[in-house]
Design goal:
heterodimer, A: 414 residues, alpha/beta, six-stranded mixed beta sheet, four-stranded mixed beta sheet, B: 333 residues, mainly alpha, two-stranded antiparallel ribbon, 2 strands, flat
């Protein structure tokens, strides 16, 4: 009996030990500095199938120049990215470098290095002014612009011609008219592709609400429930009621809908620079053109979206290594091929110069001066973004004012 | 819930088992232990049995109680958007959960979801198990076919259905259009409308729950002794009477396990609804699980999500307690 008791307690001890060891995951071991190397953890989203390879190339080049620094790359899908970063921060395992969208919440929690602290002055002054201004909270930049994209209207010329529309629309009235005519062609063809599903509802919302003179607010205040936003929301309803869109716009996601546009079944849809590559790959025969987004009064406007790189203050001893990496990455001969391969727009002055002659990007680069950005420096932007994704598509069934009020309420509660 | 169903047999087992375990050793106290033993194990016996049940208890502590404790702790904190703990807020997060205008519709939908999926699964499985229990050529292959949905990941199975239902290029939609059942050429937006998406989710959930349930019931069927069936036949009972009077009562144990595990499983199921109804705006197709997911993913409110998780945890415990109380799955026939 004694023997088995001892055996039992051995098992108990082993079990305790393994549980204790397993729970180490909660405390988190910090960056291992075994062989004198500094290891930088880097978390990035996947923009395309190339993303991982592109970053690996950048890292390989960098590690060759800086043998004392190792970079640990982790690629996540956009869907998961934000929950991954939240989980990591909560577990005390924040990456050193992070590529993402909203950053004001991190800045408010004092987790980030300022831009000045992690790049050399030359690189900092190379960023387009409007972009770096968009990463400032109270006058201090907390993130580095990485890529930009602008939206434009992709038009299926063949369908418009078939429907008897002479020129691509520039105002809402023309758009409604053209889309209704294209929809009337029948055979499953939709006039205007309107993705209000949860994938990126905030983008389509911005296209319409801002196109009617509205805005989501600024760094201090979020103003979704604003009379200025009403015309845009009502115009969306008008489009839906007139049958000018595809079926069930309220729950259609952007990417699958874009595939249908690429197949030639949709007359017009708002797209991004990478859409050009998508069409080239999926249906090179497609006869299309890229025109500015129609607005209420026809004035030029585009939704600019910028993603950022940011650096988390983890141990404080990696600042130099991070600075070296950013300086390496933003050098034109590394950065430009990277941006070009992803099909986005460059955010540095030197990059814009190099890519000025690029034909596919020309229509977007032209629109960039009129770009308006999300109020992403507002700490509530993240909640706003979530509220749009969850609620905006209800426009299909509910009243415009009701939906805007509901979004504002969720933002205020968040 | 697994603690209640797992720990309760253990003390009972040790009470009977420990005296027998000592049989091999010369132990004079044995008769005394036996006299007082069967009713209530004394503190000393519990202590003596600790080395045996200790590791299991530790495991339960580590994988069930500890996470539940962390979850409860998180539900009373204010956790910032980026995941930092900013102090206690008492029960404010619970207030937010219950004052959410869509909470009660979602609660009711969750119950509908569990009842519909578990009910349909058990009924279909009873039939399937009955067929699989008959000897027929190729039975082994058919049994294999039933288990295959289990081998595929739930997300994969759901995605297959999801894309099948897509307007424009989904095969189910195309089929329905070709048959002339749907008159718009792009098909119907099954997964774009809350009600139809929820309905199809139930179909998928039943489909993926069938293998486990069928096999549990099949295992139960094979314990029904042949003599009993023969006796029923001798007494002149028809097939229906044999089934309801003889076979079904003997399946009580297997059915209880199947229903209990399915209730817990289906209640906590996220992937099917997430895939099928993920792009639908608003909260008209959500259950408590997808709401928890939305709190985390869309609104980054880990604290409120934790509060809702605690609520969900309690709901499951209540459902299981009521079930155990009413059905008494442990009672022998």
């Amino acid at each position: 009996m004694k023997k088995s008791l001892r055996f039992g307690s051995a098992i108990a001890i082993a079990a305790t030990a393994s549980l204790t060891l397993a729970s180490c995951g909660f405390g988190g071991g910090s960056g291992d500095e075994a062989d004198g190397k500094t290891t930088i953890d880097m978390l990035v989203p996947s923009y395309s199938d190339n993303t991982q390879g592109l970053w690996e190339d950048v890292i390989a080049g960098f590690e060759e120049e800086n043998p004392d620094i190792a970079i640990d790359l982790e690629v996540q899908s956009w869907d998961n990215l934000e929950s991954v970063i939240t989980t990591k921060i909560q577990g005390g395992e924040a990456p050193d470098i992070y590529n993402g969208g909203p950053f004001a919440g991190f800045a408010a929690d004092e987790l980030l290095y300022t831009a000045e602290e992690v790049v050399s002055p030359e690189v900092l002054s190379d960023f387009q002014d409007s972009f770096i201004a968009n990463t400032e909270v109270d006058g201090t930049a907390y993130a580095l612009p990485l890529i930009a994209s602008a939206r434009a209207l992709f038009v299926n010329n063949a369908l418009l011609e078939q429907a008897g529309v002479a020129a691509p629309p520039t105002t809402w009235d023309e758009l409604l008219d053209a889309a209704t005519k294209v929809s009337a062609l029948g055979g499953g063809i939709a006039g205007y592709g309107m993705p209000l599903g949860s994938e990126e509802a905030q983008a389509e919302a911005a296209v319409w609400l801002w196109g009617g003179g509205g805005s989501f607010g600024d760094a201090e205040e979020i103003t979704v429930d604003d009379p200025a936003n009403l015309p845009g929301a009502e115009q969306i309803k008008k489009m839906i009621d007139a049958g000018a869109t595809q079926a069930d716009p309220g729950s259609t996601d952007r990417s699958p809908l874009m595939d249908i546009f690429v197949q030639g079944q949709i007359g017009m849809q708002v797209g991004l620079p990478p859409t050009v590559g998508q069409i080239e790959e999926g249906n090179p025969e497609l006869d299309y053109s890229i025109v500015p987004i129609p607005t209420q009064d026809g004035s030029p406007f585009t939704l600019g979206v910028m993603d950022q790189l940011m650096a988390f203050q983890n141990d404080g001893d990696k600042q130099d290594a991070i600075t070296k990496f950013f300086d390496y990455y933003y050098a034109a001969d590394v950065y430009v091929p990277w941006v070009q391969a992803e099909g986005f727009l460059p955010v540095t002055k030197s990059g814009a110069e190099q890519l000025a002659g690029e034909e596919a990007l020309a229509p977007f680069l032209e629109l960039l001066p009129d770009a308006k950005f999300y109020p992403s420096t507002n700490p509530k932007w993240s909640a706003t973004d979530g509220a749009f994704k969850a609620l905006f598509g209800q426009l299909q069934t509910k009243g415009a004012q009701e939906v805007l009020t509901e979004i504002q309420a969720q933002v205020d509660a968040g | 819930m697994s603690t209640t169903s797992e720990t309760s047999p253990i003390p009972a087992g040790t009470a009977d088992g420990s005296p027998r375990g000592r049989d091999g050793e010369p132990n004079t106290a044995e008769p005394a232990a036996r006299r007082s033993g069967p009713h209530r194990p004394g503190g000393r016996e519990l202590l003596a049995s600790l080395p045996w049940i200790g590791p299991a208890l530790l495991l339960i502590l580590g994988v069930v109680l500890f996470p539940a404790g962390v979850m409860f702790f998180n539900s009373t904190r204010d956790i910032s958007l980026s995941g930092l703990d900013q102090g206690s807020v008492g029960f404010d997060n619970y207030v937010e959960v219950f004052s959410f205008p869509y909470f009660w519709p979602i609660f009711v939908r969750t119950i509908v979801w569990v009842v519909a999926v578990v009910g349909a699964t058990v009924l279909i499985s009873l039939g399937l198990a009955q067929i699989l229990n008959k000897a027929f050529p190729g039975r082994r292959i058919v049994r294999l076919a039933v288990i295959i949905p289990w081998a595929a990941s739930v997300v994969m199975t759901t995605l297959v259905v999801y894309y099948g239902l897509e307007p424009y290029f989904g095969i189910v939609n195309t089929f329905l259009v070709d048959l002339g059942l749907i008159d718009t050429p792009e098909g119907y937006g099954w997964t774009r409308n809350p009600d139809t998406a929820f309905g199809w989710s139930i179909v998928v959930a039943v489909f993926v729950s069938l293998p486990f349930t069928t096999y549990t019931i099949l295992a139960g069927l094979q314990t029904v002794p042949g003599e009993v069936l023969e006796a029923a036949k001798m007494d002149g009972a028809g097939p229906a009477r044999t089934y309801f009077g003889v076979i079904l009562p003997q399946l009580r144990g297997a059915l209880s396990v199947a229903v209990l595990i399915n209730i817990i499983n289906v209640f906590n199921s996220l992937p099917i609804l997430k895939v099928m109804t993920g792009s639908i705006p608003g909260y008209d197709a959500d259950t408590i699980m997808t709401l928890i997911f939305k709190y985390i993913q869309n609104q980054h409110k880990v604290d409120v999500a934790s509060a809702l998780s605690v609520v969900a945890f309690l709901i499951v415990i209540v459902i299981v307690a009521v079930y155990v109380r009413v059905v008494k799955p442990m009672k022998e026939v």
